[in-house]
């Protein structure tokens, strides 16, 4: 045989494979989502998300110690309020659960980067991401409350806000509200391409945020669409988004790729609760090699173009990466 080109040349051992490896998962990629709730000494497991908990503030602080020790740079905070009402007032309460968690975390871990989820669904009794009138999800009225939420979180000490509601115009409203309150330095990481996905099931258990009627299809995007993701993201970029989130991640690699290519902004892939639950369930059954599959799923998001990985796997991934020689995979 007269072969000149032999791709196998560069695969013959781990040394050369690692030298020509194109994508890597790094500690600085990781954003760890966490759930905080009221009470004391509470560390409530989420049955469909083994390893993930709702933490009362004392337990939250203990958990942060591990996050910081593992050198995870950032967390994304979700709150479970004590009471829900039809206007989601817990979301923008200056003493709300997320605001308190942010104050506490900043005090003890000033270098941990705190990102807060901006949405109403955890705080409304109907479970929708905006205000509801006659069965309709109102847009502009909801946007006002979302802007208030972002301002109160930033005032408490959040380093960045992340609106996940998918109302039209919320990035601009949040940007203007932050600027008007002397918070012009706070960046916005927007869930720009967020789909109405079945993969969010376990999260709704974790955050107690399942809609009590209907579904989220009038505000979140239709899964078969990709042009729509470009239009949505374009609006958010014009309105002032600093980082774009694509969500979910695994079934949406094309959207991660396209948004990265087109907008050239940092892109965060949200490796959502259902994706996490599937891997955990299969590995609990011994059907897959857990570490290998987690690293393969995450590096696939990076290969598609993601700069950041929002993932419930952050702790375990960081443990692997911190091991001597820890390429993780
Ligand atoms: C709230 C929100 C959701 C998620 C993040 N923010 C749920 C939803 O839209 O129903 C999902 C995260 C996950 O599944 O891990 N708007």
Report on the architecture of this protein.
The chain has 329 residues and is of the alpha/beta class. Helix content is 38%, strand content 17%. It has helices at 14-19, 57-69, 97-108, 140-156, 170-180, 201-207, 227-239, 253-263, 273-284, 290-304, 314-322, and strands spanning 30-37, 43-45, 53-56, 74-80, 113-118, 132-133, 136-137, 160-163, 189-194, 243-247, 267-271, 308-311. The chain is globular and about 75 Å long. The chain starts with 13 loop residues before the first helix and ends in a 7-residue tail after the last helix. The mean pLDDT is 96. Ligand PBG is lined by residues 117, 119, 121, 129, 164-165, 200, 203-204, 216, 272-273. The site of ligand PBG has 12 residues, from helix 6.
Report mean pLDDT, rounded to a whole number: 96
The top level CATH class name: Alpha Beta
- CATH topology title: TIM Barrel
The domain tally reads: 1
Instruction: Report the portion of residues in β strands.
Output: 15-25%
The coarse overall form would be: globular
State the total count of DSSP E strands: 12
Classified in CATH, the superfamily is Aldolase class I
Report the biggest beta sheet as strand number plus sense, adding barrel if it closes: 10 strands, mixed
What sequence of helices (H) and strands (E) makes up the elements?
HEEEHEHEEEHEHEHHEHEHHEH
Secondary structure tally, helices: 11
Helices and strands in order:
Elements: H1 14-19, E1 30-37, E2 43-45, E3 53-56, H2 57-69, E4 74-80, H3 97-108, E5 113-118, E6 132-133, E7 136-137, H4 140-156, E8 160-163, H5 170-180, E9 189-194, H6 201-207, H7 227-239, E10 243-247, H8 253-263, E11 267-271, H9 273-284, H10 290-304, E12 308-311, H11 314-322
Parallel strand pairs: 1-3, 1-4, 1-12, 4-5, 5-8, 9-10, 10-11, 11-12
Antiparallel strand pairs: 2-3, 6-7
Helix pairs in contact: 2-3, 3-4, 4-5, 7-8, 8-10
The structure holds ligand PBG.
């Amino acid at each position: 045989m007269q072969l000149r080109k032999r791709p196998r040349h560069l695969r013959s051992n781990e040394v050369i494979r690692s030298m020509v490896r194109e994508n890597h998962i790094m500690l600085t990629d990781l954003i760890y989502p966490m759930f905080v709730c009221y009470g004391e000494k509470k560390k409530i497991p989420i049955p469909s998300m083994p390893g993930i908990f709702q933490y009362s503030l004392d337990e939250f602080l203990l958990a942060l110690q591990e996050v910081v020790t593992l050198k995870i740079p950032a967390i994304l905070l979700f709150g479970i309020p004590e009471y829900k009402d039809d206007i989601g007032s817990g979301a923008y309460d200056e003493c709300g659960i997320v605001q308190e968690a942010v104050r506490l975390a900043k005090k003890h871990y000033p270098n941990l980067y705190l990102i807060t989820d901006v949405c109403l669904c955890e705080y409304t009794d109907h479970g929708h991401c905006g205000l509801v009138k006659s069965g309709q999800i109102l847009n502009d009225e909801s946007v006002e409350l979302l802007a208030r939420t972002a301002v109160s979180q930033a005032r408490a000490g959040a380093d960045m806000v992340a609106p996940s509601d998918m109302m039209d115009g919320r990035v601009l409203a949040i940007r203007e509200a932050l600027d008007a309150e002397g918070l012009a330095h706070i960046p916005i990481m927007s869930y720009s391409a967020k789909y109405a996905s079945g993969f969010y099931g376990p999260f709704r258990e974790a955050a107690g945020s399942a809609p009590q009627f209907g579904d989220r299809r009038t505000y979140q995007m239709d899964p078969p669409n990709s042009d729509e993701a470009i239009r949505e993201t374009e609006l958010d970029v014009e309105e002032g988004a600093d980082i774009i989130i694509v969500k979910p991640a695994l079934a949406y690699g094309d959207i991660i790729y396209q948004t990265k290519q087109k907008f050239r902004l940092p892109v965060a892939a949200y490796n959502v609760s259902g994706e996490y639950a599937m891997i955990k369930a299969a590995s609990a059954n011994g059907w897959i090699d857990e570490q290998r599959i987690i690293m393969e799923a995450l590096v696939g998001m990076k290969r598609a173009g993601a700069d950041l990985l929002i993932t419930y796997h952050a702790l375990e991934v960081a443990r692997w990466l911190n091991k001597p020689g820890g390429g993780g995979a």
